[in-house]
Amino acid sequence: MPIEVDYTAIENHYSAEASERVIQASHALAELDGAAAQAALEQALALTPDDPLLLNNLGLAYELQDESDKAEAVLKDVYQRFPDNFYAAVGMIRLAIGKDDLPEAQTLLMKLAARPRLHITEFAALCMVEIEACLAEVDRVNAMLWLELWERKDPQNASLADYRKAIEPRTGKKKK
């Protein structure tokens, strides 16, 4: 795959107060606590309005709270206003997969995969949605290929185990 992966630290462009809220939101999202993430993101957005990453994460927070209509509205708005934003496209891909619109998901995936350089966090997100699209198509072989590629580039990513479980067939046997 001709994508160059950038491992440099992401520069923080938020104020100290907004950074605190972003960190709180990140922890809440990692713990799948949509309500706490929403509260922290709304506070961060009050300090940094129209930030596409924060808005995209707000959509995820709504999704975690089973507020699909709100999540979809936010994600579509972010993509409409920031069509070149990587995570806005990831949000649209997930929406397309959720609606079983796999051709739309594949179109968006091709655009993301065509980027010559991705930050490691973007690369991980690309691998995640590629795997999700493959699983929606019941294509475990290609899902496993994406997982293996992701493992080679980002072996310490905490999400790898969950994606491996989603891919591996449930045979009742434990793998060593």
Q: Can you give keywords for this protein?
A:
176 residues, 9 helices, Serine Threonine Protein Phosphatase 5, Tetratricopeptide repeat, 68% helix, 2 domains, globular, two-stranded parallel sheet, mainly alpha
Structure description:
With 176 residues, the protein is mainly alpha-helical. The protein folds into two domains: 16-82, Serine Threonine Protein Phosphatase 5, Tetratricopeptide repeat; 100-171. It is 68% helix and 3% strand. It is built from nine helices and two strands. Strands 1-2 form a two-stranded parallel ribbon. Helix 5 packs antiparallel against helix 6 (102-113), helix 5 packs parallel to helix 7 (120-136) and helix 7 runs antiparallel to helix 8. The longest helix has 17 residues, at 120-136. The chain is globular and about 45 Å long.
Structural class: mainly alpha
- Portion of residues in beta strands equals under 5%
Query: Count of DSSP helices?
Result: 9
Strand order, sheet with most strands = 1-2
Mean pLDDT over all positions: 92
- DSSP summary, beta strand count: 2
Low-pLDDT residue spans: none
Number of domains: 2
Task: Give me the strand/helix succession.
Answer: EHHHHHHEHHH
Net shape = globular
- Biggest sheet details: 2 strands, parallel
Distance between the termini: 29 Å
The helix content is 55-70%
Instruction: Return Rg in Å.
Output: 17 Å
Give a short overview.
With 176 residues, the protein is mainly alpha-helical. The protein is built from 9 helices and 2 strands, in the order E-H-H-H-H-H-H-E-H-H-H.
